[in-house]
Design brief:
The complex is a heterodimer. Chain A is mainly alpha-helical. Chain A has helices at about 10-35, 40-75, 85-105, 120-130, 130-140, 150-160, 165-185, 195-225, 235-239. Chain A contains 9 helices and no strands. Classes of the chains: A mainly alpha, B alpha+beta.
Chain lengths: ~240, ~700
């Protein structure tokens, strides 16, 4: 293998950690809303952690599901298609694109139309609820919100074609987002605008790097397509 | 079983048949569906904050436990038969127990509301698919518990996913329905809850519902008039846009009539209440629009008939699936389980019955959108028919042309039928006073022109009693001025009705006749509405015929018609107009656009009657659609909305029929896993709901 397998998980955490600076735009207001209804600093921290735990739980389930789908796809498609490799490349491309958007190299089209979600009011109710359980559930639903970064990570999880590994991939990514989210919920503006911008840029290029590594890994498998990739039980069955 | 159709769902406001038990009408709040009942408990429609939190937490916890079940189920799904080692066996047994552990709370959390609803329906003797769903969920759970205890395949994820999908799907629908009726609730919110009632012992705040006719209320600037009434004291500019669409405020003083829902701009008023509670102008307007939807459309009635057949078919297909799968397996337990799964899948794919949802969702969304633009739809069928209309007929005066100013009064002192000998000002004024008294009984543009002229000249309308409108012809009353002709019939209307007076004038005219003899005529100037040309061109560009039908003289009608590029027929008496419209209906939909009151017969005869300037009094509206703003450019917009609505309804119905026709057999054959069916069900709801809600949003393009 060109890239050692161990390279990715620290990178995942890092991209989660730095990528979350970019995600604060979407999920930051939720974290702030959760903090708003808490009187003490300590209580707020507990709520923030519960909220993040909820998010990570959802990420983990999604990761397991993605890995399961990847595994099934690998099993049901013809033997010559190297599904994990293709998924890794797909994930890489998604992450690179997402990273380039974040870095400002690519530009989003302006999103028009009102955002409408029937559960919106109920979701806001959970965010401001007193109980820690409600905050955990709010985090759980936050994990289901559409997010390009998340989809890239999920494609990566799918490429692991193993439920446990897919799950851990997403937990690692989720854990990386905790510091920034908690910080956002606790203090809001601990960092100045300039510092945030710099981190944002680093985060963007970190995403691109994760994507490139993923593409390289996928490509390395494709180049070895003569022999089945290691660790795929379905492919072994086909023999 | 008796039902009353006047009630609306207590959550979304859509019409609902209030079911009657043998003991009488069911007490308490009434909801149109399980989704609304559930959504009402989430949004705490009853006002119980604690219950709201708990219901939301309940849903969240159910999602949390279901996610756990899904992870362990995926682990079980990836189990390979080859792995027969004891350690792996123990691991998978553990996963099965974990599924059981996490499924039980989901059943407790979400099973309750579904079971309650199913039981309620059984008690009302109108069971629906909810009962089948409850049975299916229970069957999947019991089969799986049995499998955990005795070995075999578990289906816990089916119980979880079906419960979750049903709850979320129904909630989604309920939220969608709520959004479609938002426009009406916005109108309702215009009325204040509390009003200032004046009595002998001073001023007191009371609830609006307690106000009775004859009460005196004080209304302050910035507030809305809470009921219909007359002004006792005070003077104020009043914004009547909510009920008449008119954006220019009118000044009203003592003795003037005010309508509920209109807003005071400056001075405070004391008004004497004239309307019963809930029967003011605004409330009647809201009821008229709500009634439009409760009547339903042709497509809806077809869908309702189809839906009646639907439940038995689903039951049969489900039972057949269980039986056939079980029999083909040689009556084994595994075969029964597979059959049960197929049966559950059948029930789940056929729920929610998008058939029942497809038309009303789209209709209500469109009606709400139109209401926001002050276009009131009173008949949904007719409104959708606009999309297929091939012939549009327009009235001229007041529809394509604006309000008319009086430019001349010609009196014939002896009723000789010849030209007036001299212009006698006193005679002209007497004529105007009588004409204005008769004109006061009509809202026709020419009548309004006469009244305005009388007001400008300082002439008090007088001398006529028992005024009534003769539709399409004019107005008549009984002369009561003490003159020799006292007691004879006085008429104001077209020359075609009352006879020619003098040579053909260059202006539109109105003849006044006493005891059947013309005594004078009033001349008006008339100009095209600024938006008329664009509106007519927009209709014509859709490939529809545009006709100008008028009682006015042929020369003037043809001039207007040629400027607008329309075909024309004139002069037409009301029955000739009717005949023309009915002739055109030969397989085509004919739209009549005219004055809401004076063109009533023609509007009623046409497939779609569209009226401008309906006035505030809903009870007098005869048209299917009222353009309250009195703006002709609303017509092409409305036709566009009707086209989009019609397309959405057809697409919704096609989807509902097609989806069920394709998925029920597939599910019965055992090709669709119930969890997939549950996901498809939510997706199907989402498609119908979002497609319909798109109609309520701002215009495309």
């Amino acid at each position: 293998m060109v890239v050692p397998a161990g390279v990715e998980w620290p990178l995942l955490i890092a991209s989660g950690m730095l990528g979350s600076a970019h995600c604060l735009g979407m999920c930051g207001p939720f974290a702030v809303a959760i903090g708003a209804s808490s009187a003490s600093w300590r209580g707020n921290l507990r709520r923030q952690l519960a909220y993040s735990a909820g998010r990570i739980f959802t990420y983990a389930v999604l990761g397991a599901a993605a890995a399961f789908v990847g595994m099934r796809a690998a099993g049901s498609l013809p033997a010559w298609t190297n599904v994990p490799a293709l998924l890794a490349v797909l994930a890489g491309v998604l992450l690179v694109v997402q990273g380039l958007f974040a870095a400002g190299v690519l530009r989003h089209r302006a999103v028009t139309g009102e955002a409408s979600c029937p559960g919106g009011a109920a979701f806001r109710g959970l965010l401001s609820a007193k109980g820690t359980l409600d905050v955990f559930l709010a985090g759980l639903f936050t994990g289901l919100l559409p997010c390009g970064l998340l989809y890239g990570m999920l494609a990566l999880a799918a490429s692991t074609h193993d439920i446990a590994r897919g799950l851990v991939t997403m937990v690692a990514f989720g854990a990386g987002t905790v510091p920034a989210m908690v910080a956002a919920g606790l203090g809001g503006s601990l960092l100045g605008v300039a510092a945030r911008r710099r981190i944002h840029a680093i985060a963007a290029w970190c995403l691109v790097l994760t994507g490139v590594v993923s593409i390289a890994r996928g490509a390395s498998h494709v180049s070895l397509s003569g022999e089945p990739p290691a660790g795929c039980p379905m492919c072994r069955e086909v023999e | 079983m008796t039902v009353s159709r006047d009630a609306g769902c207590d959550y979304c406001g859509l019409p609902v048949e209030r079911p009657a038990t043998p003991e009488g009408v069911e007490p308490g709040p009434c909801y149109c569906c399980f989704g609304c009942r559930f959504a009402a408990s989430i949004t705490a429609a009853g006002g119980d904050e604690g219950a709201l939190r708990w219901m939301m937490t309940r849903l969240g916890l159910a999602v949390f436990f279901s996610m756990n079940v899904m992870v362990f189920t995926m682990v079980l799904w990836s189990q390979r038969d080859a792995a027969a080692e004891p350690a792996a066996e123990a691991f998978y047994a553990l996963a099965r127990h974990a599924c059981l552990l996490f499924t039980a709370p989901v059943l407790l959390l979400l099973g309750g509301p579904l079971l309650e609803e199913a039981w309620r329906e059984v008690r009302l003797r109108r069971p629906s698919i909810n009962l089948l769903l409850a049975v299916g969920v229970a069957a999947a759970f019991l089969l799986s518990v049995d499998a955990v205890l005795r070995g075999g395949h578990v289906y816990f994820e089916v119980s979880c996913m079906v419960l979750l999908a049903v709850t979320l799907g129904k909630w989604l629908e309920a939220s969608g329905k709520l959004r479609t009726t938002e426009a009406l609730r916005e109108l309702e919110r215009l009325l204040p809850d509390r009003v200032r009632k004046l009595s002998a012992d001073g001023e007191r705040e009371v609830g609006l519902a307690t106000v009775r006719p004859g009460d005196r209320l004080r209304v302050l600037p910035g507030e809305r008039v809470p009921t219909d009434g007359t002004i006792e004291s005070g003077r104020s500019s009043i914004d009547e846009q909510a009920v008449t669409g008119e954006s220019v405020p009118v000044v009203k003083g003592p003795g003037d009539v005010v309508h509920s829902g209109t807003a005071l701009i400056d001075g405070p008023l004391v008004i004497r209440v004239a309307s019963e509670p809930g029967a003011g102008t605004l409330e009647r307007l809201i009821k008229a629009v709500a009634a439009a939807a409760s009547r339903g459309t042709r497509e809806q009635r077809i869908a309702e008939r189809a839906a009646a057949w639907f439940l038995p078919i689903v039951i049969l297909a489900g039972l057949a699936a269980v039986g056939v799968h079980w029999a083909r397996s040689g009556w084994t337990a595994a075969g029964l389980a597979a059959g049960t799964m197929a049966g559950i899948a059948v029930v789940v794919v056929s729920c929610p019955c998008a058939l029942g949802l497809a038309t009303p969702m789209a209709m209500w969304s469109a009606i709400g959108r139109a209401t926001r633009r002050h276009v009131l739809i009173q008949d949904g069928d007719a409104f959708v028919g606009l999309a297929r209309a091939r012939r549009f007929c327009f009235d001229k005066t007041g529809t394509l042309t604006t309000g008319c100013r009086v430019v001349g009064i010609e009196a014939l002192p002896h009723g000789s039928g010849s030209l007036p000998q001299a212009s006698d000002t006193a005679e002209a004024d007497r004529l105007l006073a009588v004409a204005a008294a008769v004109a006061g009984g009509s809202t026709h543009v020419l009548s309004r022109g006469i009244l305005a002229e009388a007001l400008a000249r300082g002439i008090e309308p007088a001398g006529v009693t028992d005024v009534r409108v003769v539709a399409g012809r004019g107005v008549e009353g009984v002369l009561a001025d003490g003159s020799p002709a006292d007691g004879s019939v006085v008429r104001l209307g077209s020359a075609a009705w009352l006879g020619e007076v003098g040579p053909e004038p260059d202006h539109p005219e109105c003849v006044l006749a006493i005891a059947g003899r013309p005594v004078g005529r009033i001349l008006f100037d008339e100009s095209l509405r600024p938006e008329a040309a664009a509106a007519v061109a927009a209709i014509a560009s859709r490939g529809a015929e545009v006709w100008l039908l008028s009682g006015d003289r042929a020369s003037r009608v043809s001039a207007v018609a040629s400027r607008l590029g329309m075909a024309w027929r004139a002069p037409l008496l009301p029955d000739e107009k009717l005949a023309f419209i009915q002739d055109g209906q030969d397989g085509r939909r004919v739209v009549m656009v005219g004055d809401g009151i004076n063109d009533a017969p023609a509007l009623a005869a046409a497939d779609v009657g569209v009226a401008l300037g309906c006035g505030a009094d809903v009870s007098r509206w005869t048209a299917d659609v009222c353009l309250l703003r009195d703006d002709l450019s609303d017509l092409p917009w409305l036709v566009g909305l009707a086209e989009r609505t019609s397309r959405t309804i057809r697409w919704n119905l096609l989807w509902a029929f097609g989806y069920n026709a394709a998925c029920i057999p597939a599910a019965a054959a055992g090709w669709v896993h119930p969890a997939i069916a549950a996901a498809a069900m939510v997706a199907s709801s989402l498609l119908v709901v979002t497609g319909s809600l798109a109609l309520g949003r701002e215009d495309e393009g």
